Amino acid sequence: MIRPWHRVVPALLVLGACVSLAPAADWPQWMGPTRDGVWTETGLIDKFPAGGPKVLWRTPIAGGFAGPAVVGDRVYVTDYVTPDTDYKKLNNPSTRPPLDGKERVLCLDATSGKVLWKHEYDCHYEVSYPCGPRCTPTVADGKVYTLGSEGDLFCLDAAKGTVVWSKALKKEYNAATPIWGFCGHPLVDGKKLICLVGGKDSVAVAFDKDTGKELWRAVSAKEPGYAPPTIITAGGTRQLLIWDAEKLNGLDPETGKVYWSVPLAASYDMSIMAPRKGGDFLYAGGIGGKGKLLKLAKDKPAAEEVWTGKGTTAIYPINSTPIVDGEMMYGVDQDGALRGVKFATGERVWETFAPVAGGDRASNNGTAFLVKNGDRYWLFNERGELVVAKLTPKGYEEIDKAKILEPTGYSRPRDVVWSHPAFANQCVYARNDKEIVCVSLAK
Questions:
Q1: CA 118, CA 208: separation in Å to the nearest integer?
Q2: b/e for 355-369, b at 16 or more Cβ within 10 A?
Q3: Max Cα distance, the chain (Å)
């Protein structure tokens, strides 16, 4: 039985391939250019220099789980300004403490950290873990799209910060705020902006990305869940994956038509990770050892179950999405162990607590975010440490580690930082609830 305080804010957290939004040097959305956690930058350090990596700048910001996005010489990040920042008191997963404050969208100079513009609006919170927004901004075609914890969706001019269009999702779709807030990172696909919303027949909604006009709405569920919309190609067909609290769905991204649905309910409605595809297989899993591997049809958009997780196989992540690398999948499980598993069978090949808790057994919901770069991985853990390592079928090989941020959040019984960093311009951009930092990784 999982105790209530072991349930945590997802997305953070949170959470397939999609249309490429920018050159490889940019990090225009959650998990990078193609939302797969792959960084193609070259000319990077092999190990950290003596005394640690070079910090280029630090800029004060307020609370939030939303990671930054970086496009060209600009960094976009969201936060929440409120007088009450006692996270040890506020971060109780069983409550929704009422807070009043302002959500903000900040645009910073990527080379200096100087604030170039900000957009802010009053926002009343009643969510668990209420420190700030969850969704990384999505930047495409001169616009930046942000989704706040209480469903405030904005399209802003990326250069000036002026509002192009906006939606109050709760009001317009009669959607209740999930206990951990709106967490599905918005996805740009062609001319569409696809969002996780909620409400009757509107778990997923596609908007015209330039005007905000609704193009389609689809899927009903008791809760929308927290998993980001994800695009794959299988059976000769582009498919939109929407994992709600009850089932994993494959949709036509152009119309919202449901191609297939497979029952998959994570405990506490915590569908969080983006489903991962490898070859003809698709995997999704979450808290409570709930997961499934599906076989995708080769000739049509369809899926059938291969196996169901048992808690002693595969990976059941909370705050981060695993990465599929060849025949292996690497990711941090609910217990804080980094695991290497065979993707097609779920067989656990190895595990280690080293990158999350320094070798000690991690507390439940231990978190590290993985990014693949060539034959190495960069891992940003909940202790604010950046780790460079090799992950292979043979195991985990740590190359170096350096602390770049203090953990300012709180998850009983420890301080944490749960925000996916951005990698661009031969740098890492990471945030906690007090500052955002740019650290050089250039040789």
A1: 24
A2: bbbeeeebbbbbbbb
A3: 56
pTM for the complete prediction?
A: 0.94
- What is the SS3 string spanning 234-294? ECCEEEEEEECCCEEEEECCCCCCEEEEEECCCHHHCCCCCCEEECCEEEEEECCCEEEEE
Helices (H) and strands (E) in the chain, counts: 3, 34
- DSSP reduced 3-state for 227: coil
Domains of the chain are: 4-440 (2.130.10.10)
Say if residues 190 and 21 touch (Cβ distance below 8 Å). Answer: no
Q: What is the CB neighbour count within 10 angstroms for residue 113?
A: 19
- How high is the pLDDT of residue 248? 98
pLDDT, residue 1, reads: 30
Asked if 319 and 418 touch (Cβ cutoff 8 Å), the reply is yes
Helix (H) or strand (E) holding 56: strand 55-60
* Nearest-angstrom CA–CA distance, 294 and 288: 19
Distance CA 146, CA 132 (A): 13
Residue type, position 170, single letter: K
pLDDT of 23 > 60? The answer is no
Length reported for the chain: 443
Assess contact for 390 and 375: CB atoms under 8 A: yes
Q: Is the pLDDT of residue 18 over 70?
A: no
Residues 6+ apart with CB under 8 A from 103: 78, 79, 80, 120, 121, 123, 132, 133, 148, 149, 152
